[in-house]
Amino acid sequence: MATTKTSNPSKRRRVKAFRNSEASKEGITPLTEKYWYRRHNLFSKYDQGIQMDEEGWFSVTPEEIAIKHAERCTEHQVVIDAFCGVGGNAIQFARKGCHVIAIDIDPAKVAMAMNNAKVYGVEEYIDFRVGDFFKLAPSLKGDVVFLSPPWGGPSYKDIQIFPLELLKPADGYTLFKVARGITSNIIMFLPRNINLEQVRELCLLSSPPLKLEVEPNYVQNHHKGYTLYFRSQVAASPRFSSDSSGRTMIEEASRKESSRRSDLSNEDRRSDLSDEEGTTDSSSGGMNVGTKAGVVLGVIAAACVVVFKVFVFRKL
Ligand code: MGP
Ligand code: SAH
């Protein structure tokens, strides 16, 4: 085995420690070492027999993020995980109660994903397929397509703004169009330096344009990537919807609210807030719903007191 000589003592110590470490015994390479130290963030059940290979180490979606992806789906939905890798996402979709079609072109990945699904006890909810997503797509039916394609390895971050054209094995536009042929409910997990302008343009590939929510994903305050949730305008729920610029409604609302607040003088704000409190329902004669409920409860309480007093009085 080739050895690398280094004159830096602290680096030498680290290399020696690594050679003697548990990590090196598990076949961890210098490239994947940092991911091994985070293994329990990737799979909380790592110690129960999870299997990984080099690409799996640097590509698997951290469990916390995969859970967030799965939370956007509902029980019994069919989710197509087009690039399942070692199963980080497929497992969480299955734990959520979805039926998962998990595809990977690499048979070794599918074998590891199957093993890992067994570790989590969800293998029976996942239909594993070895194959090329682009070839299988025309025959696939599902409620949601999840796309976490290869980003070209850990060097994706050497580029300042990562263009959709660099996604593998096809550019982001092609990937999106193929998924769109199956459903408009598409979830994409992309690099943290992705070109968000291009992402917004993807909505316009559909007519009417799809709604988009852009979610930044963090693990221990470290930005790992962006998740894009696309869905059709018609079926949009408030959580998923966004304006045409791609900003989420939540982001947009909070932006408007903070600029509105800074524009208002204290005086204006007081009158504005009192207007809001007085928001009326035209049939309520100027009383809001909370006030109406209070009056009704008051009347009921008073009636109870009267009945109670009459009862006690009679007994006496
Ligand atoms: P990273 O950038 O290699 O690690 O991957 P980190 O810790 O952000 O880098 P650092 O240098 O800032 O410390 C971050 C996460 O992105 C990984 O945990 C994977 O979830 C995801 N990821 C990384 N790559 C290279 C890929 C990829 O090719 N495909 C997919 N789907 N996800 C990837
Ligand atoms: N989300 C996964 C990681 C996916 S990494 C997880 O959490 O584990 C991307 C995967 O896409 C790799 O495993 C790679 O083998 C697979 N892949 C590449 N080209 C493919 C294709 N044409 N069809 C299906 N899978 C492909």
Automatic annotation (TrEMBL):
Catalytic activity from the UniProt record: a 5'-end (N(7)-methyl 5'-triphosphoguanosine)-ribonucleoside in snRNA + S-adenosyl-L-methionine = a 5'-end (N(2),N(7)-dimethyl 5'-triphosphoguanosine)-ribonucleoside in snRNA + S-adenosyl-L-homocysteine + H(+); a 5'-end (N(2),N(7)-dimethyl 5'-triphosphoguanosine)-ribonucleoside in snRNA + S-adenosyl-L-methionine = a 5'-end (N(2),N(2),N(7)-trimethyl 5'-triphosphoguanosine)-ribonucleoside in snRNA + S-adenosyl-L-homocysteine + H(+); a 5'-end (N(7)-methyl 5'-triphosphoguanosine)-ribonucleoside in snoRNA + S-adenosyl-L-methionine = a 5'-end (N(2),N(7)-dimethyl 5'-triphosphoguanosine)-ribonucleoside in snoRNA + S-adenosyl-L-homocysteine + H(+); a 5'-end (N(2),N(7)-dimethyl 5'-triphosphoguanosine)-ribonucleoside in snoRNA + S-adenosyl-L-methionine = a 5'-end (N(2),N(2),N(7)-trimethyl 5'-triphosphoguanosine)-ribonucleoside in snoRNA + S-adenosyl-L-homocysteine + H(+)
Biased composition (Basic and acidic residues): 249-273
Any Pfam family: Methyltransf_15
Entry annotated with the keyword Membrane: yes
Compartment list: Cytoplasm; Nucleus, Cajal body; Nucleus, Nucleolus
Keyword 4Fe-4S assigned: no
TM helices/strands, residue ranges: 293-312
MF (Gene Ontology): RNA cap trimethylguanosine synthase activity
Family assignment from sequence similarity: Belongs to the methyltransferase superfamily. Trimethylguanosine synthase family.
Subunit structure: May form homooligomers. Interacts with CREBBP/CBP, EED/WAIT1, EP300/P300, NCOA6/PRIP, PPARBP/PBP and SMN.
Identification of the protein by name: Trimethylguanosine synthase
